Amino acid sequence: SSFQVTLMPEEAEDMWHTYNLLQIGDSLMASTIRKVQTESSTGSVGSSRVRTTLCVCVDTIDFDSQACQLRVKGTNIQENQYVKMGAYHTIELELNRKFTLAKKIWDSVVLDRIEQACDPTQKADVAAVVMQEGLANLVLVTPAMTLLRAKVEVTIPRKRRGSCTQHEKALDRFYEAVMQGILRHINFDVVKCILVASPGFVKDQFMAYLFREAVRQDSKILLENRPKFMLVHSSSGHKYSLKEILCDPAVTARLSDTKAAGEVKALEDFYKMLQHEPDRAFYGLAHMEKASEALAIDILLISDKLFRHQDVTTRSRYVRLVDSVRDNGGTLTQLSGVAAILRFPIADLSEPEDDSSSDEE
Hints:
Layout: E1 3-7, H1 12-21, E2 27-39, E3 45-64, E4 69-76, E5 88-92, E6 99-103, H2 108-118, E7 126-132, E8 135-141, E9 146-153, H3 165-185, E10 193-198, H4 202-216, H5 220-224, E11 229-233, H6 242-246, H7 249-254, H8 259-276, E12 281-283, H9 285-293, E13 297-302, H10 304-307, H11 312-327, E14 331-334, E15 338-342, H12 356-359
């Protein structure tokens, strides 16, 4: 017997949550497009695309993190006028269309994920514009992931001797496009802080442009939210510079009351602990299980990736670990891999474990 839940993804991040909910062997029912062969009364064969609702037993899960698209391939398990039982079909889940998911086992991690995905306070409350001359990446930072909302690229000609007009016109076009991206993609009711980062003076020149335009156009939304903007140095305008920005002490102080800050701080605390009190910082599943048995785990840092483990036994070890830490008053945060900060040192954990390497992804 299996219990089922019907959900409707409303935004890109919901696709990420769905990706983390799905496992091979689940059944998924959703609206989808199927190419169907038709035969006319004269016997000529053609094909048409029809929208139908299919229920498949999940076989392959493919998530494109850039486009936030989720494709699920599986075999049809319910009678359908267009698709034979057992035939393969790939469903691409769509925003604002419901799907129904059934599982044989609903563990605490899956139920937590659903709760987190449906909680409006879990939405992105930090935005960042990472830029350099001619390139800007507008990103939303949520507790679960980093979402690229817009990428602006404008060719900026070099300054010519005696004339800078082409250069300045192109810069204005670039700043205008970034400003439109901010207005389109940032929900100022939710976002508490907008980081504007660049090498050199690009960020300062952009901010001067942004608020000059805000005054000229009487843009109340920008003028009222001016205190939320924070200028930071970054080594480039590429998305990967976001990591260094989030670790900047001035930024972590400013973001202290936002949800994204928790993850960054936990990771920093772990590295500090590893340096100064190494017998209280551990990683690897076998070590974690021992520490958990001793009720020693204060903070467990664990990756979503580990719960996507298709091997049921390994996955259930991670689920048991999470349940045990929670039951004993420890806290959880997301990180790549599995690691923990202990309440107190445990002597016999410093011996290397044989099976810890094979358990990690």
